[in-house]
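FAQ: What does a multi-protein file look like?

Like this. Sequence, then tokens, then the next protein.
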Amino acid sequence: MAVSALDMAMWDALARNHSVSLVHLLGAAEKPIPAYGAVGYDGVAECARVAEAWAKEGFKGVKAKIGYPSVREDIEVIRAIHKSIEQDMAVMVDYNQSSVRLKRCKRLRQLETKGSLG
């Protein structure tokens, strides 16, 4: 890991020395990357409040950490987020190592059968 950090620092220093972006130094073109707001593992009300705040800031999507004790709770959080934001905003979820892979896959299938949950 330390070598990786040094490698990145050296590339950054070289780009700065030439007064160009690293993208240009490597011969590529810059392109915009959409950003999204992060919603923590904070329960229904707080997740909805945070998602709404991101919407007011102009973000076009939010990603929520889920993996509550039951899939029902995951669905409640996702529905509350949908209700608190604009209809055209993307809602992404992240189980973030909250369970074993097989359990996450099973839960994601359950979420998928619910459609957009909106």
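And here is the next protein:
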Amino acid sequence: MALYIGERWDRGGVTAESDRSRWEKQTSKRNYDAATMPTERRTGTGVLRFTVLAVAGTIFGIVGLVLGIAKEPAVKLAATVLTWSGGVLLGLVLLLVIRAAYRDAVAWLRDYFPSARRRGEIAEAAASLGLREGDAVDLDFAFGADVGRIDSIFTGAWRGHQVEIFDCRRRLRTMGDDAVEQWSCVILPTDASATLRISRMTAGSRLKRVVGRGGVPTGDEAFDRAFRVEADADMTAEAVSVIDDRVRSRIMEDSPHGRVAIELRNHRLLYCVARLPIDERAGLLEIAMRLRDAIPVR
């Protein structure tokens, strides 16, 4: 069992309905923007852009330096252009690194040293949901194995069910020890006894599928293209039976653009998405609750 200690805040109040309405509007706009924005701005392309610029800049610089040895004026001109182009590209790489470091530093400082305004925002969001402050989260899920920090914990009864909602930082095993992702998560009770994991397909998971480690197929081609289902070898049949048409439809329709992690374990449902602003938690609770209600009892 993994137990995480969180932070405590005072709280004021706004209406849950206003938060829900605002979340739905913002989510719709975010999904629209994700569908229409240029490819280089979509989730997961930042690393690719960085790599392309770094490789191209290095190649241009090396070729330019090599050609600079030649005495022909035309070749020297080409060498100069290539060298300067490589320098410009590497300069852009440096700017990307500085920008990423700045954003990470701001996020770290905001989480570890919250301002009075930040505490007020958290207080409003908690009160709007009718939840109380939480000190710890029982994150007894596979997802929790790589979680390093949990904060902004709310807990209590929401629509008759005991809920926990929190933000967390999770290490990326494929990106090195220092790389982290920020998530917002909900834990709800469920009557289903199955143990399984669902995540959005990535380049890495597609590669695993090619080599025969692509998870459990559900038979729904559209769903299997978008999501990866994992279960223990002796639980695959049960996992497929739990993810029926209604559950697959709910996940496809409700899951926001970007990262999604869903787990069932010990009669509990974990639903995580890329970190959300604190005032959008009501919407996250809504979609997690709709999924919970769709899961059949097995």
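Q: Is there any per-entry metadata?
A: Some entries carry free-text notes. For the entry above: The radius of gyration is 23 Å.
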